[in-house]
Amino acid sequence: MARKKIALIGAGNIGGTLAHLIGLKELGDVVMFDVFGGVAAGKALDIMQSSPVDGFDCKLSGGSDYAAIAGADVIIVTAGFPRMPGMSRDDLLTKNAGVMGQVAEGIKQYAPDAFVICITNPLDVMVWALQQKSGLPANKVVGMAGVLDSARFRTFLAEEFNVSVEDVTAFVLGGHGDTMVPLTRYSTVAGIPVPDLIKMGWTTQEKIDAIVARTANGGGEIVKLLEKGSAFYAPAASAVAMAESYLKDKKRVLPCAVMLNGEYGMNDFYVGVPVVIGEKGVERIVEVEFTPEEKAAFDKSCDAVKKLVEDFKKLGV
Ligand code: TXD
């Protein structure tokens, strides 16, 4: 059986980490694409030279020709510009909209059957633009944010309870960032919901509220520490988990940004909800019942995403 092929569009911090993780996990051969072809080629060569030491078989290559992504099984998109001082959100939207247009063209032409994972910010609108412009079916184009947001939540909860991260599950919905909606009653330690743990005296509501706020600001906390650039290890690991579920038909239940078509009473835009990822891409959208407070928070998050999509449409790019 031929090895799987994974194309990475964008060979920056996340792109490089993705390539390394994919190699270490032997998920397939890697093609890196970047407007700076030398950076893509250099990172690919460097990682390939680590393979004899770590003992993995994986061919990696890099460049700036879209033809190289031909026939890719999975494509992970990190291409784009970060927000710089003095830049408005519209500036970022316009610039990255242009980037998504090019990426969508490349995918449409060379790898229309791929499962596409978008990471570029502002995530919920960029993944929507990528799907619209590429014309790929919506079940094959997803955005990565929820896996990362819930990993951050799990990390902080495990620290608070002094238990293994493996035994902590978290449930996060909504748009990426400030308006993210963590559902604490579906977040557990070995199946025990967080509200029960509060009753059991393991923690307090105040501490959980602080953890929720820290999670929502998780990206900002790292940007502040790094001073240049944003998080890349955990974002890359999160996207790899999504790719692996598709490639191995694991049918994991993961929070991803997906196109809603009536689910949760929403239509025609991307937002984070739990989904099953298997060989067909998004195989099922999990719809849970909300309490009135949760519904209000989810609606608010959806409104923020919808506003960004409207702003994007007004740009006319
Ligand atoms: O949860 C999430 N979704 C995120 C999103 C978590 C963390 C970071 N998130 C976003 O991912 C971040 O705001 C950025 O929009 C992307 C990529 O982050 P990364 O840290 O990898 O950014 P870099 O290092 O700046 O890399 C971007 C690369 C860089 O090498 C550029 O040369 C390249 O993108 N680039 C392009 N490649 C191909 N085609 C075009 N047009 C292009 N333009 C820039």
UniProtKB/TrEMBL annotation:
Keyword set includes NAD: yes
Could you tell me which residue ranges the Lactate/malate dehydrogenase N-terminal domain spans?
5-143
Q: Which UniProt keywords apply?
A: NAD, Oxidoreductase, Tricarboxylic acid cycle
* Entries under CDD domains matching the protein: LDH-like_MDH
Q: Which principal EC class is assigned to this enzyme?
A: oxidoreductase
Binding residue positions for substrate: 83, 89, 121, 152
What GO MF terms are annotated? L-malate dehydrogenase (NAD+) activity
The reaction(s) this protein catalyses? (S)-malate + NAD(+) = oxaloacetate + NADH + H(+)
What residue stretches are annotated with the Lactate/malate dehydrogenase C-terminal domain?
148-313
Q: What is its EC number?
A: 1.1.1.37
Q: Where does NAD(+) bind?
A: 10-15, 34, 96, 119-121
Keyword Nucleus part of the UniProt annotation: no
Q: Which residues form the active site?
A: 176
* SUPFAM superfamilies, alphabetized: LDH C-terminal domain-like, NAD(P)-binding Rossmann-fold domains
The free-text function statement in the UniProt record for this protein reads: Catalyzes the reversible oxidation of malate to oxaloacetate.
Q: Which family does it belong to?
A: Belongs to the LDH/MDH superfamily. MDH type 3 family.
Name of the protein described by the UniProt record: Malate dehydrogenase
The record lists the organism as Pseudoroseomonas ludipueritiae
